[in-house]
Amino acid sequence: xxxxxxxxxxxxxxxxxxxxxxxxxxxxxxxxxxxxxxxxxxxxxxxxxxxxxxxxxxxxxxxxxxxxxxxxxxxxxxxxxxxxxxxxxxxxxxxxxxxxxxxxxxxxxxxxxxxxxxxxxxxxxxxxxxxxxxxxxxxxxxxxxxxxxxxxxxxxxxxxxxxxxxxxxx
Length: 170
What we know:
The chain has 170 residues and is an all-alpha fold. The protein has helices at 5-17, 19-31, 51-72, 77-88, 93-117, 121-142, 164-167.
């Protein structure tokens, strides 16, 4: 794993970026079906001739959702991008942890609302997992032990032998 924040951002961006060419391929294939492309529902009659369109729609839908999900949710690639962006802008690891926590909580609330409105039990479990991960980051930051958190393992400490002094401010 690279130690430079810029290089770590490039590595983290590769995950969500893999969904862009697949989305483009599914979009092109979907355009060949003759049915309109609608993101929220395939809106085609259920018959054998529409199976191809339905498969294209599902491929398109899944790749768009995975792209957005990977960018937005902590502790996935989005948190790596945000962490390294903040470090490049001069933030201390403790400050970056605090910002990530402040971004993660509203995201978890929005995902919880979406899961509850749609009756998505898997989404509810996902929200619980995200909350648990955010709580672990908060505890590591509060204890001055950010270097023990998986998100910060490869982060070089700034201004001293460890991150513990900086993490006290969180």
